[in-house]
Design a protein that fits this description.
With 280 residues, the protein is mainly beta. It is built from two helices and 20 strands. Strands 7-6-10-11-12-9-8 form a seven-stranded antiparallel sheet. Strands 14, 15, 16, 17, 18, 19 and 20 form a seven-stranded mixed sheet that branches.
Length: 280
């Protein structure tokens, strides 16, 4: 009966919430897209009869139901079983794609590659295959990005970040005088950082080889922990009702308890991968 009422998308049994807090009362939980005024004959009754007697109903506004797909902050596994982070998913030309670091998706020295795996709670799932990546040839590396073509059956949540209600709708460049807080998402955590500092050059180890890098940004971690396996994460900042893409994390360091992350600008990675006009 309840499932046939307007707006109702799920019905079950659970604890009733009052003022946002669970009570000891067990009731019939009715999830609706949104609460609205309805004619009396279409309203959800305050109580319903069950095999255990009368139960109260608890109407919960949950929004439209949908499958949860791949998004920024989910874990992936690339070449050489290297763990990393999906920085972004986006649609183009009727297909879905994901962005991460090149050194996660492929062995940048031998160009050996393997299917990209998506780490889900049910286990690793083959998500797609490498389409293109920024080259590591040359004296200094100024970009570390890869685009993955996702398989048709892989659900995605384009331009969404794990744990965030707002979508990415803009991009920006770091500034040395920026006082904003930035963050990136990884499975089960949010890492916050600030104080962007432009770095002319540096060295990182990639697949056991020292790699000179240049023209990147260093940010101090102020909350959470940056660890190996976070490469590919998209660093963002919050705007009014939206998220702003800043850059892709590709390396990090720690000295005397101070952690920093190294980031290449978002727009540069997008352009170097020849992904066309930015849709945001």
């Amino acid at each position: 009966m309840l499932r046939g009422l307007p707006n109702v998308n799920a019905v079950g049994i659970g604890r009733k919430f009052t003022g946002g807090e669970p009570t000891e009362d067990i009731g019939i939980v009715v999830q609706v897209d949104r609460k609205m005024d309805l004619p009396a004959e279409k309203e959800i009754p305050r109580q319903l009869e069950s095999c255990d007697g009368m139960l109260v109903t608890d109407v919960v506004e949950s929004g439209p139901s949908r499958f949860l797909g791949m998004r920024s902050g989910h874990g992936i596994v690339g070449a050489n079983n290297d763990a990393g982070i999906c920085g972004l998913t986006f649609p183009a030309g009727g297909r879905n794609f994901a962005l991460t670091c090149a050194h996660v998706a492929v062995n940048v020295w031998t160009e050996d590659e393997s299917p990209i795996l998506w780490q889900t709670v049910q286990g690793n799932v083959t998500a797609g295959h490498l389409l293109a990546f920024t080259s590591f040839s040359g004296n200094e590396i100024t970009a570390d990005g890869a685009v993955i073509t996702l398989l048709p059956g892989i659900q995605v949540e384009p331009w969404r970040v794990t744990g965030q209600s707002s979508s990415i709708t803009a991009f920006a460049n770091f500034k040395v005088n920026d006082t904003d807080r930035f963050f990136y998402a990884v499975p089960g955590a949010i890492v916050e950082c600030r104080v962007p500092t432009w770095m002319k050059s540096g060295d990182v180890v990639v697949n056991d080889q020292i790699c000179p890098v240049a023209d990147f940004w260093s940010l101090r971690v102020v909350s959470g922990i940056a660890v190996p396996g976070h490469s590919g994460a998209l660093v963002v900042k919050k705007g009014i009702g939206r998220l702003i893409a800043m850059g892709f994390l590709f390396a990090g360091s720690e000295e005397d308890g101070l952690q920093t992350i190294w980031v290449f600008p978002f727009e540069r990675i997008w352009r170097r991968l020849h992904l066309g006009p930015l849709p945001i």
